[in-house]
Amino acid sequence: MSNCVLFTIPGNEVLANSLIKLLHAEPGEAIIRHFPDGETYVKVNSNVHEKEAIIVCSLHQPDDKILPLYFLAQTLKEFGAFPVTLVVPYLAYMQQDKRFSNGECISSELFARLLSSFVDKLITIDPHLHRRTSLDEIYSIHTSVLHVSHMVSKWINENIEQPVLIGPDSESEQWVSKVAADANAPYTILEKDFKSNSVVTLSVPQFEEYKKHTPVLVDDIIATGNTMIESIEALKEVGMKAPVCIGIHAVFAELAYDRLIKAGAEKVVTCNTIAHPSNAVYIDELLAQQICKSSFVID
Hints:
By secondary structure, the chain is an alpha/beta fold. It is 29% helix and 26% strand. It is built from 8 helices and 16 strands. The strands form 4 sheets. The chain has a 6-stranded parallel β-sheet with strand order 2-1-5-6-7-8, sandwiched between helices. It has a 6-stranded parallel β-sheet with strand order 10-9-13-14-15-16, with helices on both faces. A two-stranded antiparallel sheet has the order 3-4. The radius of gyration is 21 Å and the shape is elongated. The model has no long low-confidence stretch (mean pLDDT 92).
């Protein structure tokens, strides 16, 4: 892409360098560091006047990144960059989308308002739209939402013999059924058995039919991993094979990756929306294609 300069927030260099090559974009030169007292220092060394500036920043652990991102975007605008496009493979602050109890901050709305105030366009991958149908409900800028279910299905086809996709609960069925259809594989959804007010167990419907299959547990975000660990235990109890666990976003809080392996997962696979050793489904080309498309959209 001509007339385009691509910058990165520290921690996103691998994806940013890949996009620079795919887009034939100019690499942006900027210094982002901290003063001894913890304040953020930003300096832009590239000429961005009348050029599109693209910033690559996956917002895992967002609080450490948002201020450098804000300073960089505003400085790029001051030096004449337009538009400023944020490529954010993992979009944070999507889960607190309502006030669950009195006094709570609806952080998804405030965060959307903040990002919308200093970037012109946003490109992301499968954000957690639980109670919302579109980012447009909370973002006032042009947003592009990309989906990777077909890429996950392709990985399953190429790497797993005789898979059966497993959804951990009824909420996952819409997502799991789509991945299964694209992979031309069967799927089933675990059922909750309420034995008492405090004891809930999972059961595997039609498990006898799938004894020779490789179970594939699929979810959009692997955070604590607790849901997948409970699912692994349910599969063990009925004598199914060790499952492959697949998630889009590798949040992996509380040593979740290690806990999944210890619980009995044969393999844990994620997309590279967040850099992690489990990354095996790569979004680079998908993002590059969308960046080219959105470069013609200016609100």
